[in-house]
Amino acid sequence: MSEVQGGVVPLSKIRRIILDKVSLLKKDSLKAKGIRSMMFLGVGTAFERGLKFVRYMIVARILAEGQIGLMALVMVAATMFEAFTEVGIKHSVIQNKRGAEYDYLNVAWWFQAVRGVVLFAIAYLASPWISSFYQKPELLRLLQVAFLALLFRGLVSPRAYVLEKEYKFGRAVLLIQGSGICAAIIAVVLAFILRSVWALVIGFVAEYAIMCVLSYIFVPIKPSLKINRKDLAELLRFARGMFGLPILTVVALKADVLVLGKVVPDGELGMYFLATTFVQLPIFLFGRVVGPVLLAAFSEKQDDMHSLCRVIVKTTKASAIFSIPMTAFMASCAGGILTLSYGQKYIVVAIPMAILSLMAVAHTQAQVFAAAYLAVGRPHLHRRYTMLRVAIIIGFLYPGVLYFGLIGAATVVVMGYFIALLMQVIWFRRIIDLKLGVYLRGLIPGLLLAIPIVTAVGLLRIAGINAPIVLLGIGLVVFAGTMAAGGLILSRSE
Question: In terms of pTM, does the model score above 0.90?
């Protein structure tokens, strides 16, 4: 039948809609390339994150909380050293119009490789001091082995970044997510065999070692001693704008772990660290799935500020539709999530997790602006936002932890994120004509979709139903419904 009869949608119309969507994906437009890219990244990242989540579920039951607390300090220390001299080689390759050319990639390889070797040497020598600072002798060998990740990361072929620049995200998934998947499997197997924190440390190093090897299999590069001075000058110019930004970002994300590692027992730190893995999930997914696509898409519009503004507003609405309901779900059902995943004893960090989940909204929104700043070649402006966020967190974190413990740490971190985001929106208007009212209206659909989740769980609590698993089950059903509604809203919007 060709017409709608009795309220039934004809098969021909459904077929036509599906064919229209499929034909869109085959086009070479920016929208089509973006959708295809996010599909590849979404599948790969979901599988990788799923395995890593299973890894944490297993180690939470095999290892003592204190062992996990040690691993938290090791991972943060390695990340901090990596960020100290990070100057955005990947972002410079994607942003630069000649970033895919051999001369530019050759400069990027030497810059990155020398930095990696020097950074590993400094970190290795600093390991005794870090171990002494935290008064944990067992940290020394763990740190020295974990810092090998810095060396492997510095030797990755820069052609891997060209895959994202050219929207070849299928191969990028095999390279980046593939290494993460292999490392997660290695860590789980070793956890059963070793039953110590060494399983996590070896898995951490293995991820970057595998990534390094795979990069020369999929996208090899043969470095040359001949350095193009023009490309070196452009890379250094971009690097100056990026300098300090990564370390500020890492401090904002990891400062709570660093301070808690000095103030609270290893067991509390371990439980807090595993709770934050849920909070960082939407942040990680957005950064890995949407972030690379945004940077590539925004870079194509770097010469058209009006068009860039329009895309930013649409992206804000789309990210809010998914991040705000997800945050509402995690905050409302924190106890159930922790109990089901790690065991009943982890429910003691449910309140800090609920507070920290609010950070996901602010961080995903800030990543949209970060991609825009990098796309127009002005990363120093994003650094200003990050500096404000870090200043707030550092200024209030220690008193917050000292007087209010884990809850104080979570509250200070969230406060810093939201205050800095507000200033980010205000400052960004100097680059493009982004009206505050238009931006805030983009958040409304996400806020409306979060209401059913909070209401459902709240009514259950009022009725005296406080079993974490029950609340989680009801919250998950309502959350799934809001995600379906969000997808429908986006599909009908232009």
Answer: no
